[in-house]
Amino acid sequence: MFTGIVEELGTVAAVEDQGDAIRLGISATTVLEGTGLGDSIAVNGCCLTVTSIDGDTWTADVMQETLDKTSLHGVRPGDRVNLERAVTADKRLGGHIVQGHVDGVGEVVSRTPSEHWEVVEVAMPAALSRYLVDKGSITVDGVSLTVVEAGDERFTVSLIPETLARTTLGTRQPGDRVNLEVDVIAKYVERLLPFQNPTSQDHA
């Protein structure tokens, strides 16, 4: 589990094509502290497993399912990526509950700068819109954000200078694809609703 608070901007060092998968090599420092083989690191919001560590570079295997449903299939050496280690029980939950399981890929529509923040509009798959509410949470490329306005196929978020400087969202431009993960609590509520009025036969 993650919190959507990016710890570090890493750099893609290598992308090795393996046919139905790729092996990513990522240069980083902070997220490698205390990290071992088999540990989880979120890369642009995708939970990946550390398969090797060599100095300041670690690798992860990305299977076809992940490539098909996230923006990782388009990464290239030199790209910057948002990184976060899996949260431990003694850490503060600074963002919200993030699984690292991408629900869909969105697209940056527009950026509107202000004096102290920037409003970003993102297009999303229509099927995800029911999970968004104004002032609710959404994860964009691994960053926990508050929804300003939730529409049927688009939503807006406001980015403070800290987020602009410390994550890839500071450089995303209209047309860029971003990984989206909706609030898992909303998905659980939706799943439970059909069972809220059990019949007497269910208790027999």
TrEMBL record:
InterPro entries (UniProt xref)? ATP_synth_asu-like_sf, Lumazine-bd, Lumazine-bd_dom, Riboflavin_synthase-like_b-brl
> What are the alphabetically sorted keywords of the record?
Repeat, Riboflavin biosynthesis, Transferase
**Which GO BP annotation is one of this protein's?**
riboflavin biosynthetic process
According to its UniProt record, the EC number is 2.5.1.9
Quote the catalytic activity from the record. Answer: 2 6,7-dimethyl-8-(1-D-ribityl)lumazine + H(+) = 5-amino-6-(D-ribitylamino)uracil + riboflavin
Start and stop residues of the Lumazine-binding repeats:
1-96, 97-193
Q: In which pathway does it act?
A: Cofactor biosynthesis; riboflavin biosynthesis; riboflavin from 2-hydroxy-3-oxobutyl phosphate and 5-amino-6-(D-ribitylamino)uracil: step 2/2
The terms under GO molecular function for this entry are:
riboflavin synthase activity
Q: What residues does the Lumazine-binding domain cover?
A: 1-96, 97-193
Write down the Pfam families for this protein, in alphabetical order: Lum_binding (PF00677)
Which Gene3D superfamilies does the record cross-reference, listed alphabetically?
2.40.30.20
Q: PROSITE patterns under this entry?
A: LUMAZINE_BIND
Enzyme class at the top of the EC tree: transferase
Q: Which PANTHER family match?
A: RIBOFLAVIN SYNTHASE (PTHR21098:SF12), RIBOFLAVIN SYNTHASE ALPHA CHAIN (PTHR21098)
Kindly state the subunit structure of this protein. Answer: Homotrimer.
* Reported function: Catalyzes the dismutation of two molecules of 6,7-dimethyl-8-ribityllumazine, resulting in the formation of riboflavin and 5-amino-6-(D-ribitylamino)uracil.
Name of the protein this chain belongs to:
Riboflavin synthase
Source species taxonomy: Bacteria, Bacillati, Actinomycetota, Actinomycetes, Propionibacteriales
